Amino acid sequence: MDRFWLEKAHKYISEHNAFIDVSEVRIDDVDSVATISATVIVNLPSRFIKSGITQIGVKEKEEVCFYFDKSFPLKAPALQLRDDFPRCFPHINPSEKKVIPCIYAGSLSELLQQNGWMNEILNQLVDWLEKAASNDLMNYDQGWEPMRNEKPVGFMQYDIDKTLASYDELKTSSLIQEIQYESRNKIIFAGYMCNPAKVRKAHVLFFLTKEIINEYVPNTIQELSELYEYARSIGIDDIKKSIEKFDLEYINEDKLFIVFSVRRPIKVIGSEHDIEFLNFIISKKKHRIKKGKELKRTLPDCNVGMLHHIAEESPRLLKRIAGVQTKIDEDKTIALVGCGSLGSKIGLHLARNGNGPFLCVDDDLFMPHNNARHALTSSWARKKAELLSSAIFSIGKIKALIKEDALDVDYSKSRVIIDTTSSFSVRNFLMARADLPPIISCGLYYRGQSGLMLTENENKTGSIVNIWAHLYHKTLEDDDIHRILFTSNLENILIGQSCSSQTMIVDDARISLMAGTMSLKAQHILEVGFPKNAEIIFLKYDDNYSLKTNVYTVPNFILIKSIMEKEWVVFISEPIIERMRNIMNNKSPNETGGALLGSVFMYSKTVVITDIIDAPPDSVETPSLFILGVEGLEQKIKNTEKRTNGKVTYLGTWHSHPHGGSASQTDKKTLRKLLFVRNYPPFLNLCLKSWM
Amino acid sequence: MGFSKIIFFPVGEKNGGMTLLKLNDTNNTTILIDCSIGDELIADHCDVNQELRDRLPEDANGRPYVDAFILTHRHEDHLKGFSKHFHIGSLEDYNKDEDELKIIIKEMWSSHNFWKPASKNYKLCANAKEFNKEMKRRVDLYEKNKSIQPEGDRAIIIGKDPEGRTDGLENINYDIGASFNKINNRNISTKLKGLVLSPIKQQDDEDDECFTNMNRQSIVLQLNVSQSVEKNKILIAADAECLVWEKLWEQYKDDKDKLEYHILMAPHHCSWHSLSYDSQSEDDDPQSCKNAKNALSQAKEGAFIISQSKIIKDSDDDPPSQAAKDEYLSIVSEDQFLCTNEYPNKKKPEPIEFELTGDGPQKKSVKEKSKIAVAASVSAKEAHSHG
Known about the structure:
By secondary structure, chain A is an alpha/beta fold.
């Protein structure tokens, strides 16, 4: 024992204003435990001052004992009150013989490490005793202290939410359920925790109290008669009859579980309900199980034990532990398109928050190298989608359907698609379908140094095809985005989805960093809905071990109908239309115009206009004629295409008809003249009328 | 939830008064009776400003406030620090950028004396002038709109003004002998019932000088704070002198519960003259006035008497007076008589805090502070929750 610290502790106790009669430090023969005893002066409420003892039995002078072991002061001393200190209070640690006050909601050893050192503990102890004196230990801010159980006999797992829902739906205050249990080394495991090979069957009777029970009592029930008596004290009167009837009905079952659902005035500590669940197991006496007339005998007094409740793994439990606002009981799935290293991590993050159900889409097999970065592990080649689906189920019994081919899935029962494949074919597929639920597209770039998360908006006026066009356009000015998308001539240096990405070297932690942030955003969307405008989140890992995140808003895009070409779809962003309108108004009554820039998406037959080039100086602008000049135009277009690998290209021309009317012969001639760059369709000749 | 609390703060070298009542009703109504916040630590130890502010609630804008500030009378030792620490004027002019935010007074309580201007024979300290001005501002608002003012502009006047200025102000005026259950215009009758005992009217044999003396004009209140079926009775005696107590006894001797208390704040910082007409220095055998003492003797079982004063010395100093203390010790035991500047010891006084339980007031022990860091004391106010 370290005398130095023991003497210090002794000094603190002696100098504390509430402590008197402090004993010397007594160390046992084997030098393993040191004891200090002392008396605490407890301030009593005025009514009890004269008698020196409260109604319940707290005295004005209470003896306490501190037990220090060798690890003091890293570990706090154990505290003990006199053996006959009243036990009817909450916040007493379960112990059969000694009265051990629970003076602090956390670890006493941690409290000891605070600034006040021993005074932190001494102050708490005095406060505890004073609260016991005013019978105020039940801290209503903290919540209802669950019934103290000195001798737990096991664990019982069930879903409290479901039980409460059943009371409600059936408009009843009693329920019957079958339950499986296992008795292992005299400990009862009831519910799903037991070894399937050793389970036995029994029944549970649930009883809900009618009234709010505002009285705290620790558990003292050990026999059936005491259980009956407690039931009566909380207003459940007919329990004896029910139990005896039920015992006869299931005479062959050795155990009977009883659960009291007791209404409390406030929420139970650590729970979101103001109903406390008290779980008991009746071990029916065996000698009764004979034949014939024995069945008429009543259940004799027999042993009753109390069990800890274990929450069933469920989305609600997960939600509560995570402290999030997950929407529970959703019908539509979260489609995880891509179950690789990024998709599995995002999927599991969302599942651990209680989200679901899921649809896992991936046709890839889990191979040994996937162990480097996948959220899950497998020693044999299973389908990734299957692996993720079973993991999600084991997290919280969350349903996760499995599909292989992303291009052949019915997404109508999904509420969001999270695409982590970074597959061009999947992207093209998603771009071509206007009927899909909103899409979140995630990918990692540039050896995992950067990431992109693209989020459509709710009504898809910023769809994935618009977002990509906007993103390509952004590369004209944004060097970071330019670098990650076009460093090589190919833009497929993405990771995490297929064999072709094996060359991408990046470690698991870095993917987790990105996946974590992306999951936070996805969770936010699942809680509050998709943003008003589509968004691009650009994530960049820096050398200081941190992730820098920029959020860019994508403007809304408007669909333009083509007069001549029905196959192709044209979008134009709202700010560009606004710009064109301003130019037209400024030049009115003259006609004016310019060149259109943007992106072409072949598979989805979509053209997205993201920019315009003003009319060159040699253009002709009169009230009845606009001729687009060519001076400098070709160079400008070539520069743009060069910088963007051709992703932003010359799409055609636009001109204004301030007085209405459609494209003229002159317009068509100009169009032909400008085919020097673009010699394949689509080609646009956009006419802006005054009413547009 | 916790119990309601009452806190008596230590005072400076010239005595003083400051008492905080924190109720556990749904709004956690907070009432401050007088203020005495000097710039110096009490006994080089207790920072009453910090101790007070640690216990004050904050409004939605993060501003500290009290629901009611009750000024018992206009002496400097009951108003020390008023202008420095409390917001004066409309809340629209509140300055959120100050290093130490001013405390908002939602409802201000004063005797009608706020109308009485300072004069040669009626000197007012600077804080009292500020207080009166603010009180007038608030009462004028009521007179103008004839409706209860918004929080921060509210005022309650105690006693009928002899010049009739309280006429028409009945909604914000309590006469002597009246009971009340509203604080900050909220009815909290299930939690608090108050009774205005004094300033009693001018007595037949009482001259004007005596009657208009500030201590004589002290507001004396009995506050009944409910907890379950129990009423914790607190007698706020302010600086009322012997005559007041003598007359109160005559008035209530058949209605003693109006004078009953679990906690008595010994009048006038435990001064002899609250108990006696005799002089300690000039009379041979000074006696306490029987009826005044009767009025102050209606202690409930286990009652406490608090002397909000300097350390009580066995000398001719008064207040506090050892002779007065001796009289009080015939009412309660030595353990139940507490002097703010001697608790828990003379060297390191701390606020005396009571919880008002369903079994009467329970004194709370003083939390020992860190021995490592002096400044660590601030965070040691609230106990941690129990596991």
